[in-house]
Amino acid sequence: MATRNTARATAMSAWAAVFVSARAATAAIIPADADTFVQRQASAVNTNFGNNANVAAKNHDGTANNADRVAFVRFTAPAAPAAVLSASLTLTQGAATSSTPTTMQLFGIRDGGFNENFVEGAGETGVAASGANLPLTWNNNGYTDAVQTAGTDNNVNDASPDLVLLDARVATGTAVGSTLAFFGPQLTAFVAADTNGTLAFIVTASTTNATYLGLFAPRDNADTSLRPALRTDADAVPEPASLAAVGVAAVGLLARRRAVTRSGS
Could you tell me which CATH class the domain 27-235 is placed in? Predict the structure, then answer.
């Protein structure tokens, strides 16, 4: 009996190892396709900053200040979004700043939402401003507030049906290379629910800070380690070879059980 149980346990362990290997999660780092920011300053509300050295986000004092900036970043969705188990979006300081902490919010633009496929800058592709191929600005992006409520506003129209709040994190780093990572169930669900291959996000400061300016490295930064990155961990679909291995393990288990049964009878 002991021999039979040992053989059975060994075969089961081998089968389990093959099956787990076939279903192991796979990680992917997705680079950004487009990123830019918009600024409230009167002379800049129709200016596009897609070719700027950094992607900026700031909430100066909650009074519709000229220094207010809101960032946009877009990615291509993973090939099988429904299989995503977790997701995170990381932005990295591309230039030194000062005075933290500052709470930053991450919003997602829903599938088919206005300017989901926004135009980063001159010469870039996308669809902005009601279908006109215009680079994104404060006045045409469709999500930044024209008027703020002093001390309480985050520069974004939270009530927009095209927006969903995904996460909020406190920015604590000021040096180049400091990271701001968004994650959690809302972000994961947003990525997993994608139906059109485009994932567009808005990053804005929800707390006021006159001296802090998020200066995040853009997608074309010379240092690739500083670029925006969307990480996904997905449940891998077993390849035919893996499924075949599982089948072989199962057949082996049955054959061994039969052999043990006959020898013990």
Answer: mainly beta
